[in-house]
User: Which sequence fits this backbone?
């Protein structure tokens, strides 16, 4: 093979792979833009308000201004779509690449992964390096190679009638069988440059599918639930301006706390002293067990803006509730709450290791461990294996994963608990001798109408309360009872006495700010009137 032919072949191969890189980045841009376009609730506010780094003030000001925010929403969405189309189709490629670099640079400096943790808004970010930076470098490299002319509509713009072909004149008429098929060459060139057009439908389908998944609650009324997704928490964080937050700084809720009937007692969870009533964090992270109430997700979103969350945490602390239990995804807002001096409430992180994106399956091990490490690094005071996670891993004989998570948390000097919805999980953990500091076990009665439904529809969490009470009586570790209200189906003045009388040492209960005083008083009354409790207090 001649050197020139070899060089040409290598060049063609290189351009093919560079074109694939350009198309892949275009797919990503286009997909992100379309999902935002199809989601009427999407806003850049949470992203802007969570900005970090030296330019954080500028981006946060943009997120706080309705006028500027509306412009940013449109520019960001359509910028992603148009840049994505340009890169995907190879149309005005250089312009699309330059615009993509500028947009990615804006993303990067708004959440630079350098001196501060970029928080929940920036997945795929490490120290200095992030996916934004990697794509930016790739686009910068592609600027030096005209891949749009090699494989893209830019190639047709340069040769609108196909590639010209020089015809040699030998003074002889062409034989019919040796005539060059110029039209055939043009047709193949056109098809090559339009090769990505049919795949636009796949990008569109993926974006629509994601939109349908995000509105799963409204489509599946009975089994609905509002999950603690990053996007959801971003929206929750987006609604408070700086003035509202500043007004909360140092505020004393004496008008409310004057209504308390006493002081909540505390007990030890390993090395951590916790109030007997623990604030459940599901309501703050958006996991509200809405069942068939399709308006609940938007109701919670509109109610729980950042200032409302801070108010809830502050009121809880001033009422004697010194611990919250929630998903690691809310750690950025907790970090701000602590760092800016609003309060010092302790955080128990649920170490959930299941992936619900396509049914129920275990999370990738490294991803699971990274999530737990993230909670620890962000300041969690304790952790526990989330109930559904423990149930799943025990049932599927993947105990080794739970052991590694427990070792990770305890190795960092933090108390560690084991949760469960099923009492069989607790029994198996006892049998295996898993080292831990406390139990998290669901407990509620079945005296509510939806508990009688023949099939499970997010309506029951303690499947055998009698066996739970009987078995937990013999365990010496402290017991935090959760799902005590059956996700809102049972009143606190019924649930709290039931749980304390039946052996629970602590109660974890989700509370809105306007419920805290009443719930603390109910807990005080229940603790004061405990009767017929067989299980000794373990904390």
Assistant:
């Amino acid at each position: 093979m001649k050197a020139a032919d070899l060089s040409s072949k290598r060049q063609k191969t290189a351009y093919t792979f560079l074109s694939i890189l350009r198309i892949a980045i275009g797919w990503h841009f286009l997909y992100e833009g379309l999902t935002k376009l199809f989601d009427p609730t999407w806003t850049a506010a949470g992203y802007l308000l969570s900005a970090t780094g030296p330019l954080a003030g500028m981006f946060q000001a943009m997120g706080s201004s309705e006028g500027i925010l509306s412009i940013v929403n449109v520019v960001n969405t359509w910028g992603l779509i148009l840049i994505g189309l340009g890169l995907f189709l190879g149309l005005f490629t250089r312009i699309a690449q330059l615009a993509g670099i500028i947009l990615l640079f804006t993303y990067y400096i708004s959440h630079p992964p350098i001196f501060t943790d970029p928080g929940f808004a920036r997945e795929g970010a490490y120290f200095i390096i992030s996916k934004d930076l990697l794509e930016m470098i790739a686009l910068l490299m592609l600027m030096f190679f005209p891949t749009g002319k090699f494989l893209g509509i830019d190639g047709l713009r340069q040769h609108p009638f196909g590639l010209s072909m020089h015809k040699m004149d030998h003074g002889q008429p062409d034989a019919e069988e040796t005539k060059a098929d110029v039209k055939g060459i043009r047709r193949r060139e056109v098809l090559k440059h339009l090769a990505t057009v049919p795949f636009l439908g796949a990008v569109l389908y993926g974006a629509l599918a994601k939109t349908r998944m995000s509105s799963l609650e409204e489509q599946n009324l009975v089994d609905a639930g509002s999950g603690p997704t990053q996007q959801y928490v971003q929206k929750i964080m987006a609604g408070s301006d700086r003035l509202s937050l500043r007004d909360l700084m140092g505020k004393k809720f004496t008008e409310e706390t004057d209504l308390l009937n006493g002081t909540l007692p505390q007990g030890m969870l390993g090395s951590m002293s916790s109030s007997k009533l623990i604030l459940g964090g599901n309501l703050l992270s958006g996991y509200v067990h809405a069942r068939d109430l399709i308006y609940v997700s938007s109701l919670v979103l509109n109610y729980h803006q950042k200032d409302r969350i801070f108010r809830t945490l502050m009121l809880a602390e001033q009422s004697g509730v010194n611990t919250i239990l929630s998903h690691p995804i809310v750690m950025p807002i907790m970090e701000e709450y602590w760092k800016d001096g609003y309060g010092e409430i302790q955080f128990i992180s649920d170490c959930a290791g299941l992936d619900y994106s396509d049914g129920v399956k275990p999370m990738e091990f490294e991803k699971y461990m990274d999530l737990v490490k993230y909670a620890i690094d962000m300041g969690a005071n304790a952790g526990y294996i989330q109930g559904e996670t423990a149930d799943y891993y025990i049932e599927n004989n993947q105990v080794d994963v739970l052991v590694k998570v427990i070792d990770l948390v305890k190795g960092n000097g933090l108390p560690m608990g084991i949760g469960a919805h099923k009492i069989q999980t607790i029994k198996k953990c006892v049998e295996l001798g898993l080292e831990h500091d406390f139990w998290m076990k669901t407990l509620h009665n079945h005296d509510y109408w939806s508990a009688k439904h023949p099939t499970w529809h997010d309506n029951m969490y303690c499947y055998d309360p009698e066996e739970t009470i009987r078995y937990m009586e013999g365990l010496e570790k402290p017991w935090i009872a959760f799902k005590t209200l059956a996700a809102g189906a049972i009143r606190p003045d019924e649930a709290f006495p039931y749980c304390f009388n039946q052996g629970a040492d602590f109660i974890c209960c989700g509370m809105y700010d306007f419920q805290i005083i009443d719930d603390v008083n109910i807990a005080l009354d229940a603790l004061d009137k405990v009767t017929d409790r067989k299980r000794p207090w373990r904390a």
Remarks:
- The radius of gyration is 29 Å.
- The chain has 25 helices and twelve strands.
- Residues 116-122, 161-170, 174-185, 213-229 have pLDDT under 50 and may be disordered.
- The first strand starts at residue 266 and ends at 269.
